[in-house]
Amino acid sequence: MKKTHFLLSLLALGLVSSCQNNDEIVNETSKQLEVHNKTVNVTHHDGRPFSTGSGSANSKFVSGPGGGVLMQGFYWDVPDGGNWWNTVKGKVTDWSNAGIGAIWLPPASKAQNGAYSMGYDPTDYYDFGNYNQNGSVETRFGSRTELEGLITKAHAENMQVYADIVINHNSGGQSEANPYTGTNTWTNFSGVASGKFTRNYNDFYKNSYGNNDEGAFGGFPDLCHANPHVQDWLWVRDDSVGKYYKNVMKFDGWRFDYVKGFGPWVVNNWNSNVGGFSVGELWDSNVNTLEWWANNANSSVFDFAAYYKMDEAFDNGNLNALNDDMMWKRNPFKAVTFVANHDTDIINNKMLAYAYILTHEGYPTIFYRDYEEWLNKERLNNLIWIHNNKATGTTSILYTDNDEYVARRNGYNGNPGLVVYINNSSSWQERWVETNWSSQQIKDFTGSSGWYPTTQGDKWVKIQCAPNSYSVWSLNQ
Fold this sequence. Notes:
The protein contains 14 helices and 22 strands. Strands 2-3-6-11-12-13-14-15 form an eight-stranded parallel beta barrel, surrounded by four helices. The chain has a six-stranded antiparallel sheet with strand order 1-16-17-18-22-20, covered by helices on one side. The termini are far apart.
């Protein structure tokens, strides 16, 4: 080798070596080459299912062996006109019969845009469509009476109901002189029709408590949770927002909007004082951040880490991405999984994604439009049944490559668990896998495969999966 060529080779080698920590190169290599065919025990606990607490307001709610399923009961810009509460009420019985155990409703109180608002610009937390303010009596979704009727109906069907709580910011106040800014600000909420939780510039940043908190949103007045007056009215008083929603309106839990905007101690204090199920919208794919927030807030959190990994896996031909870290793997009892919501809907291969979250740990969420309009409801109902009845115990990943993913739920309390096989390729696939069952007949509970194989004495068995689909195997009993 000529010296010049040798030096160039060393230079090239050095450049390649210096780039080995580059995520793009690592990810590209894993996408092309990586195959996992050794069992990886992902979670380590006693096997119990996700719990949403002690039950609904009437104490009737009981989840199945695999835990519960949550329905997001709205989407962005649902029809206005005040009919949405009744629309959802009309679906509650069918949802309950399908095995859905809880409904997450949009922000229920009167907001700045009155009958046209989706509720994320709250004005009066105690106006549920029963006061004439902001241009209407009813909210976009209906009247207080209709909301109460919906909640009562859900409880009669043994379902929980979660309120979307927007406490980072307010909107719809009147203009007032603000000595902290030297300008006029829209922070005068002294005239809210309910007469409850009146507020002014002292209750918003910047003020005597500081210039800002963790985050502001969209230029709206940023509520100051450090102010004792705000704390009293949000969660301390007997008629605080939280206690009123729980004890008077009969909500069973909370979805906290935009929790990046304030410290996790806020949700922790709410939960300590009010109780009920709790999940935070921390829009961040970093699992360390999600886990940090969930622990400090004493709350569940939406698993955005899993959401983005599912997009990479199912839409980009890299099922190896499902080996990566996610909140449900860190702490399955604080992870709420989802495939789409009212804010983000990027996963195209949704049925495979639903097959993933409804067979794995965490608390799976169904998006209203996926269930009612866009996907095959019969297939979703089958997955919900599988989740509630078969998706038990800890999780072990058995095999992954670019196109195939096989995982095992290890069973709990006498329930045998399952093996899920996801195939993102264009042809039927077969694979030998190790189950927890010795010399027993199994079947595919999706009905996709007609096989009824018997596991060997060493618990190994061959299973199959249709192209661009999934199969779910458990004991034929």
